[in-house]
Write a structure and sequence with these properties.
By secondary structure, the chain is of the alpha+beta class. Helix content is 43%, strand content 25%. The chain is rod-shaped and about 145 Å long. The protein binds adenosine-5'-diphosphate and magnesium ion. The site of magnesium ion has 4 residues, from helix 13.
Amino acid sequence: MVTDRRKFSQENVEQLESNSDGFIHLDRNLRYIYVNNKTDKLLDRGRATMVGRSINDLMPELNPMILKAGRKAMEENKKQELEIYSELFQIWLRLLVCPNSDGVSVYYMDITKRKQCEEVLRQSDERFKNIFQNSKIMMAIIREKDDCHIEVNQTWLDVMGYSREEVLGRSLAELNIISGISQVRWREANQRVRNKEKLFTYEADFRTKNGEIINTLISTGPLQLNGEACRLSSVIKDLTREKNLEVELCRLDRLRLAAEMAAGLGHEIRNPLTSVRGFLQLFQGKAEFADHHSTLQLMIDELDRANVLISDYLNLARDKQVERSEQQLNSIIMDMYPLIQADALVRGKSIFLELTELPELLLDENELRQLLHNLVRNGLEAMEPGGCVTVKTFLDGAEAVLAVADWGVGIKPELISQIGTPFFTTKVTGTGLGLSVCYSIAQRHNAQMEIDSGPDGTTVYVRFKVS
Ligand code: ADP
Ligand code: MG
């Protein structure tokens, strides 16, 4: 029944017959000499009838490819490999076409399952790529062995301000992306991912290209990419706003506490002071205290100083009535100028004004005077004699900005977070209330106060919204 067995040993034939893969032996004209059992079943023609017929007759759909590979195998005397899909049998076949003395042998196997798996993998790959690239979440794939970025998504680039070329192939350390303390946490997290092979979530601070720090919650886990061990890191939450809010809330809470205390204690302290001051003035007028006149004056001056302090403190009061009206910020500054200039001159320093025209703003004149006074005073106190404080006003988009800049020593970075806390001072005779008062005045004016400080000086910006 097996056709033309001459060419095959008994052993060969048994092997071919029992093989689950297909086998076809063709002559130089690509006509059947022999097909094995598997092929017989697949074609279902009765293999005895096939001998001597061209493969054209039986597999018209596949023959162009098989013919081509068969001819090439014979011409080049080299085996050919191809993968083809049969619509008729709805299967994928992998063919090995080998030249021999009769013509060619075609070994083939059904690779439909493998192809299906490949397709599933390709689709899941595609899906992953889509999710990765289009996600609104920042994502990065980092190679374990050298910490280099292999891929980052568009959101990552948008937030961090880098171009893809700047990032790919470079490590986190090279880009100086992970800021300060986060580095420790980050290394620890990577180690944990490496050891335990699981997803790990931690907080980290990123430094963007322009130096801004963003606080994030990151999830990182192992990922195998092209046979290489990698990590997939995704920012699952941007905590920057929350962090800023927390800081702001703490500051407001401290202000509230100070304000409540101010309201309660201020008057209680001022009343006895007023009566003591009254008695001192009375004694000053009496002949028997004539020798002590200057001492009494000193005591009165000291009490007045204490009173000013209490007034400053009372200004923190939360329920303070603000009397705002539309007016020119520049006029308030001009009115104040002689006073602050005199204050500066006494200290061997000077004040410059750089005012640009602004629209009218809703301002409480008294509070603005106090704000300016406190800021200028701080500037003057931060500088050596000869220094200069510049008071500027300008428009920045929808904001009118008051800026007070000095050439002073600056504020140490580690102290910045405490600035504005009532009673925080680095000065021997300071009260630590000036900036607290400024913050509460700014707040009552819906204005934002920002401090920009470095070793070359400090600038305090107060940004008023232009209505
Ligand atoms: P005080 O001036 O009484 O110390 P402030 O609230 O006005 O209180 O200021 C608090 C602290 O902030 C100061 O002691 C100083 O350390 C710092 N500071 C404020 N303004 C400046 C400035 N322009 N330059 C340097 N340090 C400043
Ligand atoms: Mg001050």
